[in-house]
Amino acid sequence: MYKVIAIKEYEFTRDIMVESQKSKQQYTVFDDSDLIGNDQFSFVKEQEIYDCKIGILYEVNHSGKKFYVLSREKVGKMNLFRVANSDGDNFYLPATTDVKIGSQIKLIVKRYDLLSVNNVINDRAL
Q1: Is 88 exposed, middle or buried (0-12, 13-18, 19+ CB in 10 A)?
Q2: What pTM does this model have?
Q3: What structural domains and CATH numbers belong to the chain?
Q4: Given the DSSP bridges, would you call strands 26-31 and 14-20 parallel, antiparallel or unpaired?
Q5: Residue 92 CB: number of other CB atoms within 10 A?
Q6: Is residue 15 helix, strand or coil?
Q7: What is the pLDDT of residues 37-66, one digit of tens each?
Q8: Could you say which DSSP state residue 12 is in?
């Protein structure tokens, strides 16, 4: 669960600053559902708490942060791995054959992407 701290609107996209209710860590999450979809996340408001699935745009790198591969899951039609960072917050990565459940990987996070909010899925995942 994540609390929306702030929303920064751009012409077709927005950045949503969320705070994990588990770890109290804050993340800036990219929302492009208005640009590539049907604006499924227009209901998201500041100071509200939502069940979010957040994807990671990343680079594998030995100097990156450690993530633990927990399980394989589907979000819409996307096959993903659910991973957790050292704070215990869950994120999603594309499922690849070279990653094993139960393993650890080190990633440099380039961007966090909003995949789902309260079981409403971004169009790109359908």
Answers
A1: exposed
A2: 0.91
A3: 2-121 (2.40.50.140)
A4: antiparallel
A5: 21
A6: strand
A7: 676 898 999 999 999 999 999 999 999 999
A8: S
